[in-house]
Amino acid sequence: MERLNNKFLQKGTLPVEVEVPAANWKELPVKVIQFGTGVLLRGLPEYFIDKANRKQVFNGRIVVVKSTASGRTDSFEEQDGLYTLCVKGIENGKEIEEISINSSIKEVLTASENWGEILRYAEEPQLRVVISNTTEVGIMYDKDDKITLNPPHSYPAKLLAFLYKRFQYFGGDKEAGMVILPTELISDNGKKLKEIIVKLAEQHRLEAAFLHWLEDANYFCNTLVDRIVPGKLPFEEHQKMQERVGYQDDLMIMAEPFRLWAIEAKDPKVAEILSFSAVDDGMVITSDISKFKELKLRLLNGTHTFSCGLAVLAGCETVKAAMADPLLEGFIKKLLMEEIVPTVVSRGGIENEEAKLFAEKVLDRFRNQSLDHKWINITLNYTSKMEMRNVALIKGFYDAVGEAPEFMAMGFAAYILFMKAKRSIDNTYKGYTNEKGYYTINDEYAALFEGLWSKEPEQVVEAVLNDQRIWKQKLTLPGFQEKVLHYLRLLMDNKVKEVIKEAVNNKKYNQLN
């Protein structure tokens, strides 16, 4: 089987279902420098850029900087930067599949071997965009780093070296400034990156004119990314897909249909430079991305956190399996639509239709049969996730409705029962469910819960809800403690799914005994 590359493309033997690059893709200039080679970048920013190029909108390609010497770039070279993106899942309630050949990457350069060549790209006038995903620890200040190193160690120092070279080459021309888009999963990523860059510039005693240019000519944008990109297809699926499309592709990846890249920018110049943003509704440039953060944190992450303990206790392994189970799906839908959506809307800044539409997309994502998202993995750092994502929802529901939430209370009770920890001989903490046996608890408060569970259930619930070290406040809302205890006892005394059935099938909120 022939390998995917330009030579193979020119034969024109591809199945009609495969979207091919624009005819002029090889001639397009480099307009983006990207720090990082991870699959999220290939499945989201590169997806948008490639889509725009096929529509003759952006007409630019990417030079990718690989920060570490580990791993190879041979496949990118052998395939002329081409790779297949398979999008599989559910969108607007319907199964979809899209197969496209992405041609957005011009070349991949390794920082440790090609630093001089990377810096030469700073001289390209059409290169106006920086994208990065260097993991959460990538945007960190390293006081010992030097921009004169070949290459600098940290991403911020590498970027500063690149920007300083550009400033020097173009003589401080404002039109040579960059739009800088960190996609690292930290809050205010653009702001934090800029602060580190300025601090490093001052530490290196770079001239005041450069600091002014940094401030006036460049746009450090906060961004939020959201798309599940598992990466390489499972072996058998990969083989079948290669047979189907008729070529070998070592870089083939898959992604879910949902995509969101929200970019915070007030200056219209940013949208002008990022012209590729106009070709897909999944890319949004707005003066404030806090709304998108709230939707993701509460409706997607919050639903996960309220549901994961219950699903594990019910013996359900994956999110997609839960959505195929009428009872668990019923719990998730009622939790999301009847409690979380109204709460988010009541907190202000988000319209009801916006929240409902996002929630429907969350349910579509949960139903995706191509994703093996395990509930036990979602329970990692369960307590801190419950505090960060869901305490505001519990309080917000009470403020909006005037009573304690039913399904949130059940999810919270399941969390407390899930955290019934016993320390094992290997110093890990284990919980137990009648459905599946033992499971591992990865939570910094596991030892605390082991001690609490020597008491009676009502004492456990009272102690947990009153622990201000965990929640930074007391969760003793009227009626909430009683509902949590009610469900905790039911979950301890009955089959988990019978408890879910009672709540889900009850049209009105359950009346406590």
Q: What would you say this structure looks like, in words?
A:
With 513 residues, the protein is of the alpha/beta class. It folds into two domains: 281 residues, NAD(P)-binding Rossmann-like Domain (Rossmann fold), CATH 3.40.50.720; 215 residues, N-(1-d-carboxylethyl)-l-norvaline Dehydrogenase, domain 2. Helix content is 46%, strand content 15%. The strands form four sheets. It has a six-stranded parallel sheet with strand order 6-3-2-7-8-9. Helix 11 packs antiparallel against helix 13, helix 13 packs antiparallel against helix 14 and helix 13 crosses helix 22. The chain is globular. InterPro entries: 6-PGluconate_DH-like_C_sf (IPR008927), 6PGD_dom2 (IPR013328), Mannitol_DH_C (IPR013118), Mannitol_DH_N (IPR013131), NAD(P)-bd_dom_sf (IPR036291). It comes from Sphingobacterium sp. (strain 21). One of its GO terms (cellular component) is cytosol. Keywords: NAD, Oxidoreductase.
